[in-house]
């Protein structure tokens, strides 16, 4: 096997732009396909402990399905991932309002977030990886956000079965930015309709508590002794149905963990292991937090890759800042000012046990 990149025509966007699907394959035969419509990750094939490759992310069968993609399968999220309460916040002393696309909240960048835009794509190859740069100009006022934002997403599939995803951005007016990747993983998607037996470990002792609108209250809770404790590996399903007020809000895990190591180094945030296939996913990030979401709002009505997307059929681990940070000054700011460069990196590494 050698490193390769395949480019296919994928269809036409609602605005009439030609869209491609790029498949990156590494020297071990692992592959990731990405479309420049939304910089969405469409497939991810990794080996199990017998060397059999299988796709381990939920996704659709055609480009058109990504035009709506209500659950944000595989999506590159921006400008601001997660929720902004009442779709409103102050930026540089001025109040801005954003579309309320989740009850009264603004969610995942609005109705035409980064996952609904056509990005300019350029592939590249190194001695040990294949990758794709995706570039986008999000104009001043886009979805209500100030500033012309020049943003780049780079996916790179390495020969050691690591998929990295890196973001960088600059602006000409103070704005807010909190990007993330919204892939839904199921490490045994071919055989298991839920991820409840997957074992998860999180490098976090604390979550940000939620109100009934799924917004952080501003309080932090220690996870020790609660259903949210994943400091040691634990089956995702072990406590998911516990009668817990915080679990009930999201219908399962849908909460932001504060990573214990608050440095902005690329460090391990989560490890997920699936016993039958032996697949292990290690998630690293430079972000301060990671959202654990167990696909609680999937209800079987959407389909793709020969299956209906059922509740708990996948998990998302979304590196990010604390949700609603612009309205919660006790948490790290997500402001980006002219002259600064936003940068964020994550790594999804695959091996077997
Ligand atoms: C959020 C969920 C939401 C899902 C799909 C996750 O990041 O935490 O509450 O339903 O995205 O939009």
Give a verbal description of the structure.
The protein has 353 residues and is mainly β. It has a domain at 4-193 and 297-352: Beta-galactosidase, Chain A, domain 5, CATH 2.70.98.10. 3% of the residues lie in helices and 44% in strands. It is built from 2 helices and 29 strands. The chain has helices at residues 63-68, 245-250, and strands spanning 4-12, 18-25, 31-35, 40-47, 53-55, 75-77, 83-84, 88-91, 94-97, 106-107, 120-125, 129-138, 149-158, 162-171, 175-176, 180-182, 199-202, 204-210, 216-222, 234-235, 254-259, 267-273, 279-285, 289-293, 303-304, 307-308, 316-320, 335-336, 342-352. The chain has a 9-stranded antiparallel β-sheet with strand order 11-12-13-14-29-23-22-17-20, with no helix packed on it. A 5-stranded antiparallel β-sheet has the order 1-2-3-4-5. The chain is globular, with a radius of gyration of 19 Å. Bound molecules: beta-D-glucopyranose. Beta-D-glucopyranose binds next to strand 24.
The CATH topology of the domain at 4-193 and 297-352 is Beta-galactosidase, Chain A, domain 5
Rg, nearest Å: 19 Å
Going by helix content, strand content and strand pairing, the class is mainly beta
| Biggest beta sheet attributes | 9 strands, antiparallel
**What's the mean pLDDT score?**
98
**Low-pLDDT runs:** none
- Give, in spatial order, the strands making up the sheet with the most strands: 11-12-13-14-29-23-22-17-20
Measured distance between first and last alpha carbons: 23 Å
CATH class of the domain at 4-193 and 297-352: Mainly Beta
Ligand inventory reads:
beta-D-glucopyranose
Helical segment count: 2
CATH architecture title of the domain at 4-193 and 297-352: Distorted Sandwich
Work out the helicity level: under 10%
């Amino acid at each position: 096997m050698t490193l390769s990149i395949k480019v296919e025509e994928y269809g036409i966007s609602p605005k009439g732009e030609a869209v491609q699907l790029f498949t990156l394959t590494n020297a071990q035969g692992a592959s990731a396909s990405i479309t420049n419509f939304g910089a969405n990750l469409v497939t991810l094939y990794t080996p199990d402990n017998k060397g059999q490759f299988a796709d381990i992310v939920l996704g659709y069968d055609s480009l058109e399905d990504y035009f709506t993609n209500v659950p944000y399968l595989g999506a590159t999220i921006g400008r601001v991932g997660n929720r902004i309460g009442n779709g409103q916040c102050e930026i540089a002393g001025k109040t801005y309002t954003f579309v309320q696309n989740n009850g009264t909240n603004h969610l995942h960048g609005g109705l035409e977030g980064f996952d609904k835009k056509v990005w300019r794509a350029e592939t590249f190859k190194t001695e040990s990886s294949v990758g794709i740069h995706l570039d986008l100009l999000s104009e001043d006022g886009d979805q209500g956000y100030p500033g012309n934002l020049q943003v780049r997403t780079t996916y790179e599939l390495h020969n050691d079965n690591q998929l990295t995803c890196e973001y960088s951005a600059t602006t000409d007016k103070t704005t807010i930015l909190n990007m993330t990747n919204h892939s839904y993983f199921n490490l045994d998607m071919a055989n298991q309709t839920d991820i409840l037996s997957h074992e998860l470990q999180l490098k976090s002792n604390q979550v940000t508590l939620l109100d009934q609108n799924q917004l952080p209250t501003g309080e932090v809770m220690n996870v020790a002794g609660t259903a949210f404790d994943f400091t040691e590996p634990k089956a995702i399903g072990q406590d998911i149905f516990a009668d817990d007020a915080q679990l009930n809000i999201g219908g399962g895990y849908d909460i932001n963990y504060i990573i214990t190591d608050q440095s902005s180094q690329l460090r391990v945030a989560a490890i997920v292991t699936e016993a039958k296939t032996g697949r292990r996913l290690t998630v690293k990030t430079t972000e301060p937090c990671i959202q654990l979401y167990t696909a609680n709002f999937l209800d079987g009505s959407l389909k793709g890759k020969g299956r209906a997307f059922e509740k708990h059929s996948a998990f998302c681990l979304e590196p990010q800042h604390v949700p609603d940070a612009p309205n919660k000054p006790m948490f790290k700011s997500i402001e980006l000012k002219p002259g600064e460069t936003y940068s964020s990196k994550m790594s999804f590494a695959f091996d077997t046990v």
